[in-house]
Amino acid sequence: MRTVTLYIIALLLTGMTAKLQAQEDYENKIERLKSLKKEIAEQEKKALKQEVEDINKRLESKVITLEEAKILKENAAKKRALNIEDRLAIIDNRIALLDRNKGQVMNVVETDTNEVAVRFGIDLSGKDGSEFIWNKKQVWRRDVKYDRRTYSDFVIAFGLNNAIIKGQSLEDSPYKIGGSRFVELGWNWRTRVFKNSNFLRFNYGFSFQFNGLKPKGNQYFELVDGEATLQEFDFELSKSKFRMDNLVFPLHLEFGPSRVKETEERIRYSIDRKFRIGLGGYAGFNLGTRQKLKYNRDGETVKDKLKRGYNTTDFVYGLSGYIGVGGMQVYAKYDLSPIFQDATIEQRNVSLGLRFDF
Prior knowledge:
Layout: H1 2-60, H2 66-101, E1 109-110, E2 116-120, E3 131-134, E4 138-141, E5 150-165, E6 181-192, E7 200-213, E8 219-224, E9 227-232, E10 237-255, E11 259-262, E12 267-270, E13 275-297, E14 300-307, E15 315-325, E16 328-335, E17 347-357
Antiparallel strand pairs: 1-2, 2-3, 3-4, 5-6, 5-17, 6-7, 7-10, 8-9, 10-13, 11-12, 13-14, 13-15, 15-16, 16-17
């Protein structure tokens, strides 16, 4: 009996504690909402001030006329006034809902059949708040920057590779024209040079270059007295491939028209399906050099992978350019630095192919 009595008393105390905690949480929620009402007007005023500053900048840049600026300011003021009215109404309704249900309400409010508002976000910097919406897709709504001058792209290029040898024409090259190839992977940024024109841009970033050479005949590279030269291999080669891996930092001046898309909230310059030409160069470092040989010896297929210095140039640099439409261009590059250091006959890498940016 005593045990049952103690159990009942414990249950009663637990219930009372939970009830007191719920009452305290409910009162805290009400107080937070009331204090939030005081902040709303200040937030909207700061947001209006920012919008007016942006409009003035556009007016100074002669993007819009004085009359257009006046209309935009009036519309912004009306919008912010309505925002204050609507946001205060939301808070008042929330307080009434909590008060009516003593704080026992669901945190998720359905806004329509396809959309549920999970959080009402507020940015204390004075700009519009953010809101996370769950519907058929997940969308993160945030402040939009009026003018973006810099964009970034993933870049991939590939094509034919060979070497220009001093005193020889490309037709006399000891490397296979179709078999020697290159691949380039990188990330580039594109920044508009002028404030109100997108005709000239800087295109810069970093890339990994993989330049391959396939010697003709039964030849391979071997160091002779510290110099890499082509030598006849002892067995019949089914594959002989020489590859230099570089990390470079390209810089191009890019020219070409663009399409302007302007609204009250943003201005964007699009080069989608527009003619582009880029001229510049690159500089960087040789990360490694390797050679792959495949041949048959005593009835057994042998694959040799040789990773050595081969006395290749450590610091690489050259000229490059591209021309095309939109995200696809014809691409060419030429190393001003020789492939091999202190070589009797200088060789310089040259490439021609296609370049894509996404």
